[in-house]
Amino acid sequence: MKSFTILLKNELKLNLRNMNMVIFAILMPLVILLIFGFIYGNKPAAEGEAYTFMEKSFSALCCISICSGGLMGLPLLVSEYRERKILKRFQVTPVSPTKLLTVEFAIYILYSAASMLLLFPVAALFWQVRLHGSLTLFLGCWLLTMLSTLSLGLLVGGIAKNQKTASVIACLLYFPMLFFSGITVPLEVMPDIVQKIVLCMPLTQGMQLMQTAFLGLPINNSLLTFAFLSIVTLLCFGSAVKYFKWE
Amino acid sequence: MQTVIKVEQLSKAYNGQPVLDRLCISVQAGTVFGLLGANGAGKSTAIECILGVKSADGGKVFLLGHHPQKERRQLFQKVGVQFQQGDFQPEIRLAELCEETACLYEAPADWQKLCAQFGLADKLKQTIKSLSGGERQKLFIVLALIPNPRLVFLDELTTGLDAKARREVWQILAKLKSNGLTIFLTSHFMDEVEVLCDEICILHKGQAVFYGTVEQAKQACNCTKFEEAYLALSGEEAAI
After folding, report:
1. Which of B45, B73, B87 has the highest number of chain A CBs within 10 A, making it the mutation to test binding with A?
2. What gap in Å lies between CA A111 and CA A124, rounded to an integer?
3. Chain A: nearest CA to B47, how far in angstroms?
4. Could you give the ipTM of this predicted complex?
5. Residue B159: exposed, middle, or buried by beta-carbon count in 10 A (0-12, 13-18, 19+)?
6. What are the tens digits of pLDDT across the range B58-74?
7. Does domain B1-78+150-157+184-240 have CATH number 3.90.1150.10?
8. Is residue A207 in some structural domain?
């Protein structure tokens, strides 16, 4: 446990020094929140709805840092460590692959949590955003969305042949997720076929779940989504550990 | 005396080209063993297969009685390794790298003391990138010693060091050896091999062409200087 803490502390420091994730996982969601806020203010999401547009968008904004960290930061980091033979150095120490992967995983959990903890007070203060549903349920949905997306990213970093492949796969996942999953542009305006494709992505499913929970809408039909996200998490994380390559 | 490294019939080929051919090595506790050979003779592949970083095509390896791949985590509690091309996280500082390495072991050495011993005490806050080649090489030896190992592998340990620094490293290694540490090294400096190694093995195209002590090598080809003996035995002489 002591080694986990020291590794996490040092790896987090290195990650912060790099600044990429500070920009894409912390600042970018905040900037988008501000833009949305200035455009939509306190307007309701639709004519006669009980919640505002900002409240409806809050879950999506929380997903931006999950998306940046999980589908860009994490896969690139793991493949970079492999390509630079940093993992090879770890291979001749007693550390287990699971511990190393969990440390890197935890860094992006912290980014996602930090982003949400920053977004909520700002949204609440300036645009009176408030949670309509249960806090526990919302946090549960957030956790599951994050774990499934990060696991997917971990798997990409784990099995990609080199950094270049990892970066291509990461881009193929990251940009469609960012633009088509309803995070930045509402899903409803997308063509039918795009909607159908992005609905298969764990992040889209998770975001809708978070949205439902945040707005306090009935969540009865979501059991299947919970199951889907749990399976994605277990399958991806398990495979990332099982097929882990040091070199 | 205890056998610390036992390598039997180790073979490895890349794309059908043999790079290691039935290599056998046996190293006793508290001795220094040198694996020599020209660039491309198979030294690094041999080290990687012995450590289990690469899977050999055939043969057996036991380090401190452990199978390096099956018992990796127990084994590397007691073994320190310095690779020829060690890389590190960008932006990492010396103290961070040492701390991060030390935390992986149950009973690590005091890394601050080691850094002081190798003249790196005033560099702890510097990034690894900003160190000179010699300082970096010293740091890699420090990292190999952090586990408080019973066995260390040093691949080209003094490449990049100046004459004075090389002698300092020799002294430190001689002292560690007298404390019972077993050392497996590769080197291109024959003066170093002569001073440090109890036994050597010379590789040529993946095959062991000589195995024995430095004195035996000199006798084998009637040379007074070990470097001449090495060139003759490794088949490099013709190239000069």
Report:
1. B87
2. 20
3. 12
4. 0.91
5. middle
6. 999 999 999 999 999 99
7. no
8. yes
